[in-house]
Design a protein that fits this description.
This protein is an alpha/beta fold. Helices cover about 55% and strands about 10% of the residues. It has a seven-stranded mixed sheet with strand order 7-6-5-8-9-11-10, with helices on both faces. A four-stranded antiparallel sheet has the order 1-2-3-4, with no helix packed on it.
């Protein structure tokens, strides 16, 4: 459901990866609401009362899905009337649309795990009840993985929505049967599965609630932070929307299936080593290493949190309270990453914060458990920890060049020692106050609590030192990369300006979006747009350039640094469509960072909003632009806005072009997605001529690939332009608003 709804509204917000993060936040909040409902009716009403209330809820959900199915293309794919207005707050609009489109059905779905498990316990499920949570997450994982591999390639989006509606009605019927069976169940079943093997607890302490909440909040925050970092800083391919959530669900499945899957002796050392290697990869800016290690670190972090969560789970008669704390923690993690972090941090620092919180929480869990390895005596454990840390640092230095030099700074070690000392002091006080028994004392049968200062001091010192190194590494990973002199963050990502040699360079994550040389070369177009590039040749040698009194009208989707405005001549008209207001500021402020737009000889307008929505609105008002050239420059990054390459999108573009000589120029310099089959499909459908132009990197230019389409025969006969047709061995793929399969186009 999350994937279908998110994909259906993705085109309305420029294909931004933040749509996925925001929708995850909304669904986590709806999950919390469903868990609150399940907890309230399970503790306030009798079995027959619960059955009646849930029957009403199921009936309302059926009527809502039926009504939306008749009004929209499907019950969970909103109609075109819900498209947002340009210039609004994207976060607020994404939340509003998802709540209307999927709010109530998802709320009903979210009640299933806690409520049906509670009913199962009433009917005698006993200690096997918690395994149903693992089973339900297996179902979620199958739904998640079958979407990109099965449903997306085979079915149109509208068909997927209708199929979901049919399955949802079957789900409602199944829940109705369960409610009918439980109506005469006994009021309580006293289970024996508890926190420490004891059951029958009647009250939940504040500390227990806090541990449940935090152990759910940290992996939730790490999930979204890792997804952000992967999709916007490392690389964006469709699989990276699915992979982090799949790993998150897998950790739930393993931990709640059986405690044997989570072993501290295995996962905690693996987490420590991977944490250091990941920080090293972030420090030296190694993209390939990050793409491998970030998902691995996410999985180990989730296994630790969810494994510790299972260790402190209550008996099943407090099951709904437990799940309520879990959903509250999950929502809190989502709120932190989706709403709070963008206002607090200029970079994706929430990733390091989430990891740091997991390290601290793990130490708390270890010190609260007198049987944990941290209370072991002897020298082998501290020696092993020290040797492992040294070996990890050595291997990291061999694997990632530059790590030793970057870590060889005095403030790194001072920071590490400060954190280590703090950990030692805190754990010393905790041990003293709680009077923890050591495992050796338990075996000797000593009933009285012993002061653990002498017994565990060596191990605590080493653990404190290791925690200090982890904190210092996390801190260093936020400042190890070259510092931009300007960084702007909003819904659409982080726009950064770096000084590289004699130029200002605009980047979003790992993707270059333009640059400008210092005077006197500040009017020279560089990067992908040099005079030898396909678009440079078209704008300089367009047939209108040889006709006295004729001027060019150029439309441009994506502003970047505004480089193409350098080709403007007196009388020309350049109209940019830019979705990110922070990018526009860099060229439009009174003292702009990039001056191409300000210094252009052409008349330049910049419209804020999604290009396709703006073009459609202009056409509906009779404002036909009649561009000579329409430049689609929204694909140089790796987050592909699919809606700009569909059949319906090209139909809009052709209406806005000069019918005689109009050219569409598409910039397809993408590292991970091959868009040529899609453009070949569009070319064949609209019976347009197509050529593509590839240029290798040559300073001050960047390697670039441009595809040019024209419906008028001979419009592409431009002096200097390579007349290379699209490869004949390509299999054309025509995308539509209702069907796109980007997964098969990954390079």
């Amino acid at each position: 459901m999350q994937l279908i709804v998110s994909k259906s509204i993705l085109p309305w917000f420029g294909g931004s990866a933040a749509v996925w993060t925001t929708s995850m936040l909304v669904f986590q909040a709806l999950l919390l609401a469903g868990y609150i409902y399940s907890h309230v009716i399970s503790v306030r009403f009798s079995a027959i009362g619960q059955a009646r209330i849930h029957f009403v809820l199921l009936s309302m959900a059926f009527l809502i899905v039926l009504a939306l199915s008749l009004r929209w293309p499907s019950a969970i794919t909103p109609g075109a009337s819900w498209k947002p207005q340009p210039g609004g707050d994207p976060t607020r609009e994404v939340i509003a649309i998802i709540v209307v489109a999927a709010g109530f059905p998802f709320f009903v779905l979210s009640t299933t795990a806690p409520l049906l498990q509670r009913w199962f316990a009433r009917l005698g499920g006993g200690t096997g009840t918690y395994k149903l949570y693992s089973v339900s997450n297996v179902g979620s994982l199958l739904g998640l993985l079958t979407f990109p591999f099965l449903f997306e390639p085979l079915f149109r989006l509208q068909t997927q929505g209708r199929l979901w509606s049919m399955l949802f009605c079957g789900f409602l019927a199944g829940c109705g049967v369960c409610a009918w069976k439980v109506r005469n169940a006994p009021e309580e079943t006293h289970a024996t599965e508890g926190m420490s093997g004891t059951g029958g607890e009647t009250r939940t302490g504040v500390l227990a609630w806090a541990m449940w909440f935090l152990l759910a909040a940290c992996p939730s925050a790490l999930l979204l932070a890792t997804t952000n970092l992967l999709c916007q800083e490392v690389t964006t391919v469709p699989l990276l929307w699915v992979l982090p959530l799949a790993l998150y669900l897998l950790s739930f499945i393993l931990c709640f299936d059986n405690p044997r899957w989570y072993r501290r002796a295995i996962f905690q050392p693996l987490f420590a080593v991977t944490l250091f290697l990941t920080c090293a990869g972030l420090i030296v800016n190694n993209t390939q290493t990050q793409a491998i290690l970030l998902p691995v670190l996410l999985f180990f972090g989730c296994m630790i949190c969810h494994g510790e969560l299972v260790r402190v789970k209550p008996s099943v008669n407090r099951l709904t309270s437990f799940y309520l704390a879990l959903s509250g923690g999950g929502a809190a993690g989502g709120i932190f990453v989706g709403i709070i972090a963008p206002h607090l941090f200029k970079f994706f620092t929430e990733f390091q914060v989430s990891l740091g919180a997991i390290v601290v929480l793990l130490l708390v869990c270890l010190f609260r458990d007198p049987t944990s390895w941290i209370f072991e005596q002897g020298v082998w454990l501290p020696a092993g920890i020290t040797g492992g840390a040294v070996l990890a640092a050595y291997l990291g230095g061999l694997w990632l060049q530059g790590v030793p030099q970057l870590l060889d700074r005095s403030h790194f070690y001072l920071f590490a020692l400060s954190i280590g000392a703090l950990v030692v002091v805190v754990t010393y006080v905790m041990g003293k106050n709680e009077g923890v028994h050591s495992p050796q004392e338990k075996r000797r049968g000593k009933p009285e609590a012993q002061d653990v200062r002498r017994k565990v001091w060596p191990t605590q010192v080493y653990v404190g030192f290791l925690a200090g190194l982890a904190g210092a590494a996390l801190y260093q990973s936020t400042v190890g990369s070259p510092e931009p002199y300007l960084s702007l963050r909003n819904f659409y990502g982080v726009a950064r300006v770096y000084r590289v040699g004699p130029a200002n360079v605009l980047a979003n994550g790992r993707t270059l979006h333009g640059a400008q040389l210092d005077p006197p070369n500040d009017k020279v177009p560089v990067t992908y747009y040099g005079n030898a590039s396909g678009i440079g040749i078209v704008l300089e040698n367009h047939p209108k350039r040889s006709i006295p009194g004729e001027n060019l009208r150029v439309g441009l989707v994506g502003l970047g640094a505004g480089t193409l405005a350098a080709y403007g001549r007196p009388g020309d008209y350049f109209r940019y469509y830019e979705i990110n207001p922070d990018v526009a500021k860099l060229s439009l402020d009174p003292h702009p960072v990039f001056t191409y737009v300000r210094d252009s000889s052409a008349h330049v307008d910049v419209e804020l909003g999604d290009a396709r929505l703006l073009l459609e609105r202009e056409l509906s008002k009779g404002q036909v632009q009649k561009f000579d050239v329409l430049v689609l420059d929204a694909f140089s990054g790796d987050a592909i806005p699919v809606h700009l390459l569909t059949r319906e999108a090209f139909a809009t573009y052709w209406q806005d072009l000069d019918p005689d000589r109009g050219i569409i120029a598409i910039h397809v310099t993408s590292r991970h997605v091959n868009l040529l089959p899609v453009l070949l499909g569009a070319s064949e459908y609209f019976e347009a001529e197509s050529v593509y132009d590839v240029n290798a990197a040559k300073y001050p230019f960047e390697a670039n690939t441009w595809v040019l389409l024209a419906r008028h025969r001979g419009a592409l006969k431009i002096p200097g332009l390579k007349q290379t047709p699209l490869p004949a061995d390509l299999q054309p793929r025509l995308w539509t608003d209702d069907y796109s399969d980007i997964f098969r186009l990954i390079k």
